[in-house]
Specification:
The chain is mainly α and about 475 residues long. The longest helix is centred in the N-terminal third of the chain and has 34 residues. The chain has a single domain, classed as Amino acid/polyamine transporter I, CATH 1.20.1740.10.
């Protein structure tokens, strides 16, 4: 649908819940979370209450109150000014850059299972496939060509929800038929066993797997009866995300021994474990192709990433003119090229380091940077309730000021705690790293990434403002659109 349409169909509660679920749930996080065993049920319940639902409620109020171009950038700018708005959108963009290699590794492993599963252990194949997928996605979007919303959604559902649903069914059949699960299944096993800070670090990775809900905030203003439908939609999507993520991760944990879990291939390992001994391994190849399609669809959604936010930042003169240039289709030409170069460099790390450790390090770094943006978003909703109380909001966080402080304040504290805790090196059974090779590189990475936008803002050129930057939303709709 074109942005210039004056009449847009309203979104039902069901559609809103499905959109929220699809944008959050993915295959890449299931093996990491599956390593926690049965206690992941408690972990996910806690993270849903302290982070996932607060993000949704805050994004809902900001999205309907300030439904303009720019998304997160616009919200933070209204509350905290251009400097911190630039930090927020910078962190949103960077977390996607850091996240790409992890999801590209899943793409590469899925391709390996479709051709020859042994290729997943070949670093050159994994890196080469990752680069091929990403540069192809970049070039397609660079030309302004886009998958329609329904096709991207189809890819996500066929390539994510279908394989996860099948994995859950296989795990239930395995346990129900009397086979020995790879983890202990008892009430006692559900109780979290946290004996060190290093164990908490691994759990904090869940922040990364419950992020992204704010990208749908642009659609909240089209919801029928928003004051009731938005919280109900968030509740339904929260339960769906919790169910799919928990049961999907448990299916990996039940069928694949902890010491054999591959963080990039966990879900496909489930299918291989069941179907190969039965002589029907060809089914794994089909599922691998579906999983690859799902991940490619996911990447296609995010390759342009927070482009609309960067476009608004460009209009404010916060990025150099060279990064304001766009293609005829409206895609940010040089931003996407820079993005592709950075992602390629990150993927090349897989040639020199253990893939599981690179996967984990990038997941943690991505989560930390993303939490900076969320912290600014939580602060912004509180500030805007105080300084702009008269702005019409079709939805407000329930409970008045106490409810606001409980939701946004609690979410902000959770975000800050997550950033700090994740500097500690992990010491779980499947992942133990020394502080010298984890904490120091992670701290340097975090400081560099967060300080860069502050430096860029400090030394920005006033002449950058007012130049013909990225085209407006209505101008770009005919060329490309985000399908999240």
């Amino acid at each position: 649908m074109h942005g210039g349409s004056s009449h847009r169909k309203s979104i039902s509660l069901f559609v809103l819940a499905m959109m929220n679920t699809a944008v959050v749930v993915g295959l890449e996080g299931l093996p990491t979370v599956g390593s926690f065993g049965l206690s992941l049920i408690i972990y996910y319940a806690i993270f849903t209450l302290i982070f996932f639902l607060p993000v949704g409620l805050v994004a809902a109020e900001l999205g309907v109150g300030w439904p303009h171009d720019g998304g997160v950038y616009r919200w933070i700018r209204e509350a905290l000014g251009e400097r911190w708005a630039f930090v927020g959108v910078w962190c949103q963009w960077l977390q996607i850059l850091i996240w790409y290699p992890t999801v590209l590794a899943v793409c590469a492993v899925s391709l390996a299972y479709a051709i020859d599963p042994t290729l997943r252990d070949t670093a050159i194949f994994v890196v080469g496939s990752s680069l091929a997928v990403f540069w192809t996605a970049t070039i397609i979007n660079f030309r302004g060509l886009h998958f329609s919303g329904w096709l991207t959604t189809l890819f996500l559902y066929l390539g994510t929800l279908l394989p996860v649903g099948l994995a859950i069914g296989l795990a239930m059949w395995w346990v129900g038929s009397g086979h020995e699960p790879a983890i202990e299944i008892s009430w006692q096993a559900m109780v979290p066993q946290i004996d060190s800070i290093g164990a908490v670090v691994g759990i904090a990775a869940i922040f990364s797997f419950l992020s992204g809900l704010e990208v749908n905030a642009v659609h909240f203003r089209h919801v029928r009866n928003p004051q009731k439908s938005i919280p109900r939609g968030l509740l339904v999507s929260g339960l769906l995300v919790l169910a799919i993520s928990v049961l999907g991760a448990l299916s990996v944990a039940v069928l694949v021994p902890l010491e054999k879990i591959d963080l990039a291939a966990g879900t496909l390992q489930v299918f291989s474990f069941i179907f190969e001994p039965l002589g029907i391994g060809w089914i794994v190849k089909i599922l691998a192709i579906l999983a690859l399609a799902g991940m490619v669809g996911h990447i296609m959604v995010w390759v342009i990433g927070p482009t609309e936010s960067l476009r608004v930042a460009a209009d404010d003169g916060l990025i150099p003119p060279t990064f304001q240039k766009t293609t005829s289709g409206g895609a940010p030409k040089n931003v996407m090229l820079l993005q592709a170069v950075i992602v390629s460099a990150l993927c090349l790390l897989m040639l020199f380091f253990d893939l599981n450790r690179i996967f984990y390090f990038l997941t943690i770094a991505s989560a930390q940077v993303y939490l900076v943006m969320y912290l600014l978003m939580f602060i912004s909703v509180i500030v805007l309730r105080v300084v702009q109380p008269d702005v019409p909001r079709a939805f407000v966080i329930p409970g008045g000021k106490p409810g606001l402080w409980l939701v946004a304040g609690g979410g902000g504290l959770a975000a800050m705690a997550g950033i700090v805790i994740m500097f500690w090196p992990p010491s779980t059974t499947d992942m133990a790293m020394d502080w010298m090779w984890f904490t120091i590189p992670l701290f340097i990475t975090f400081v560099t990434l967060v300080a860069t936008p502050l430096l860029l803002y400090q030394f920005r050129n006033p002449d950058w403002r007012g130049r013909p930057g990225m085209p407006g939303m209505d101008e770009t709709r005919a060329g490309w659109k985000r399908a999240d």
